[in-house]
Amino acid sequence: MNKISRNDLCWCGSGKKYKYCHMDQDKKLSDLEDKGLIAPPIDIIKTPEQIEGIRKSCEVTRKVLDMVSERIKEGITTDEINTWVHDYTSELGAVPAPLNYMGYPKSVCISINEVVCHGIPDSRVLKSGDIVNVDVTSILNGYYGDASRMFIIGDASEKAIKLVETASKCLYKGIEQVKPFATVGDIGYAIQTYAEGKGYSVVREYGGHGVGNEFHEEPFVDHCGNKNTGMILVPGMIFTIEPMINEGTYKCELLDDGWTAVTADRKLTAQWEHTILVTEDGVEILT
Ligand code: MF3
Ligand code: CO
Ligand code: CO
Description:
Elements: H1 23-34, H2 48-71, H3 78-91, E1 95-96, E2 109-112, E3 115-117, E4 131-140, E5 143-152, H4 158-176, H5 184-197, E6 201-202, E7 208-210, E8 217-221, E9 238-241, E10 244-246, E11 252-254, E12 261-263, E13 269-271, E14 274-279, E15 282-285
Antiparallel strand pairs: 1-4, 2-4, 3-12, 4-5, 6-10, 7-8, 9-14, 10-13, 11-12, 14-15
Helix pairs in contact: 2-3, 4-5
The protein binds 2-amino-4-trifluoromethylsulfanyl-butyric acid (MF3) and cobalt (II) ion (2 copies).
């Protein structure tokens, strides 16, 4: 890294002198790096302009999920939900990020029962008792917003409902950890401890991720981990937290379509996701 002097302009583009801007934060980060933590690379710290753009994109994602929550019910196909998401996203002036992303064929991911994530919409009909994750990512003016929710179709078993509720609780346990100079490990630790305490397991093969300027950026947000380890959080970072919580084993298998991840034991799994911003004094949920 090039050495920047106290009286130089700050690297963040604020136009302020370094000593009045990010100098103290950088000092603190380099001290923490000496203790084995990881400082965030500069390019994942968003500028105020990027934050505004990502905020608006997250608003689209939230509206699309609100629309789905009003219409989803027993008897509809996942292809129909895909069409709703595609059309409403376009109506809001945005583009569905999954479509053609690394060859993904649809506009939304829909993961039912034992499907951990990345389920592909098709002619399957939702039936009473299904637990369904709908994962929406929108691109508005080049900025990404990513979120998912669970939906319980008709009458589900008590154990399915409990899993869905626990997964939601895990998301908020993770979000609660977020503030400047906390770590990604703090998030994973909070989620893992809570989930395992309830007798569930936490998926390791997939995780949250930096998001905003791209679909998937640094850091990888592990939903398992140890306190005070990994990347340090600083204001202006934007990432998802999206714990996948399993009834049985944490292990996953990939189906032949190359996308659909299922639990290795085919037991139930549930996931909730938000895009969040690290603020000066804590966290803001953008979706
Ligand atoms: N929205 C998913 C996530 O939370 C990623 C989906 S990638 C896709 O990271 F290609 F399957 F859409
Ligand atoms: Co995500
Ligand atoms: Co997502």
